[in-house]
Design goal:
349 residues; Rossmann fold; 2 domains
Length: 349
């Protein structure tokens, strides 16, 4: 039996890594991939990086190296540290082929008693490195699988009752941060499909499904941030308001929002009410605003209130996002935010 091994930080997983893994899969009966914890290199947690590999290559055995050595170099002492760690991690398992694109292929394969298999060591087939991608994931996103790039984008959702300025704010923030935004799909759907100003329970599920599908597509074009106008909890609350019930699938979409978005902002209802034909009136805005706040509290989702005119709201969001890292702790973020520079546009437009 041919058992292959490869290893790395996969921070992030990119097409060069995929070429390495796919070559290894084609030449072995079983492949083990060791993923190292790498807090000195990336804030993306080890389980996230492992999941990328597990989901894309279900037959691969992934080993998480939580206590692996982090020192890099080609001295005999450093090489021995890595060799000893791998031998201990493998616990006597026989490796016949070691795959890599790095200098350590020689000494690791020798220590394992395995064939030294190099893949695109000159980076001719996939001319990119993880270091380059970390420097600018947006500019290098064509080297990333969609599920990987989506994980690198921070999704910011704007909530609030109708006529609380969500759409105007999403547009303004997209311009401010030189990125894309996701419009409220439900509003367009309602205008086309409503009958006597109502939708069925099943149609409300279609709104949530359609919004998520379009949002996923938008994420692939986003430059670090994606600003989202409402989420499935809004559709869920409309369902309760008009029907007194919600389809179980819609309820699940609403529950999933806590994991789908990275930051939640609640737009205040102190601004003038825009009484358009598709809205239910000033009084119902007040009720729906209270329900939206209560729903966030009930789901125990942390959120930030936005008050005042558009410019003040943009400034509040900007202050929160300066230096924000979705994979870092909130404590670290707010400790460092005061001294962080304002994000600059990268010339996308």
């Amino acid at each position: 039996m041919k058992t292959g091994l490869t290893l790395g930080k996969f921070a992030p997983l990119h097409k060069g890594h995929q070429l390495l893994i796919e070559q290894a899969l084609s030449q072995t009966d079983h492949l083990i991939v060791v993923v190292y914890d790498a807090p000195e290199t990336t804030t993306v947690p080890l389980p996230v990086r492992s999941r990328w590999i597990k989901n894309r290559y279900p037959t691969v055995e992934v080993l998480e190296a939580w206590d692996g050595p982090t020192v890099v170099g080609n001295t005999r002492e450093i090489m021995a540290t890595h060799e000893d760690y791998l031998l201990k991690l493998l616990a006597g398992r026989r490796i016949t082929h070691f795959f890599s694109s790095e200098f350590y292929g020689s000494h690791v394969s020798k220590a394992l008693g395995a064939k030294d298999c190099r893949v695109d060591e000159a980076r001719a087939l996939v001319p990119i490195s993880a270091t380059e991608i970390r420097g600018n994931p947006y500019a290098t996103r064509h080297f990333l699988a969609p599920e990987v790039y989506r994980d690198l984008v921070t999704k910011v959702v704007l909530l609030g009752a109708p006529s609380t300025g969500k759409t105007s704010l999403a547009k303004a923030l997209a311009h401010e941060f030189d990125t894309d935004w996701m419009p409220e799909y439900g509003r367009d759907y309602w205008a086309i499909n409503q009958k006597e100003r109502r939708l069925t329970l099943e149609q409300l599920v279609e709104i949530a499904e359609g919004h998520i599908e379009r949002e996923d597509a938008k994420t692939l074009d986003a430059n670090r941030w994606l600003f989202v106008d409402t989420d499935a909890t809004t559709t869920f609350l409309f369902s309760l308001y008009y029907h007194g019930a919600a389809h179980p699938r819609l309820a699940q979409f609403a529950e999933n929002t806590r994991h789908r978005y990275d930051l939640f902002f609640l737009c205040g209802d102190e601004i003038p009410y825009d009484d358009t034909w598709d809205r239910s009136g000033y009084g119902k805005r007040m009720v729906f605003q209270k329900q939206t706040r209560a729903d966030l509290l009930h789901r125990r989702i942390p959120f930030i209130d936005l008050k005042g005119p558009l410019e003040a709201r943009v400034e509040t969001v900007r202050d929160v996002l300066v230096g924000f890292d979705k994979f870092d702790s909130i404590a670290n973020h707010f400790r460092n935010a005061a001294n962080a520079p304002t994000p600059a546009a990268d010339g996308r437009r």
